[in-house]
Automatic annotation (TrEMBL):
Lineage, broadest ranks: Eukaryota, Metazoa, Chordata, Craniata, Vertebrata
Subcellular location: Cytoplasm
Residues that span the membrane, as ranges: 80-99
Signal peptide start-end: none
PROSITE patterns (UniProt xref): GST_CTER
Keywords assigned: Cytoplasm, Membrane, Transmembrane, Transmembrane helix
Assembly information from the UniProt record: Homodimer.
Domain of life: Eukaryota
Principal location: cytoplasm
One GO CC term, this protein: cytoplasm
Protein name listed in UniProt: GST C-terminal domain-containing protein
Protein species of origin: Sus scrofa
Stretches assigned to the GST C-terminal domain: 1-101
Pfam families: GST_C
Amino acid sequence: MTTSVCEGGDSCFVPQEKLKPGYLKEIPEILKCFSEFLGKRPWFAGDKLTYVDFLAYDVLDRNRIFEPKCLDEFPNLKDFITRFEVIPLILLFIFSFFFSP
């Protein structure tokens, strides 16, 4: 895990491995909130895709990269990720050179 640190106007990232165990303990509770809010809806703001879904996807994807199994207890969030990633223009972006996992 890294924390952004600014010195003299320059951004850099400093490893904070000691923070990782605490964050790993917090992930399930954070994801539970997302899961309960999403419920059975296809998208976070209702039945249509909105910018909120892009923000939610980013948060969920970053956590999934950080801890790949973190979504295992939340099938609705896994379904959301899948639903988002198969949108044709999103899929094109994921397979483009602009996307860096």
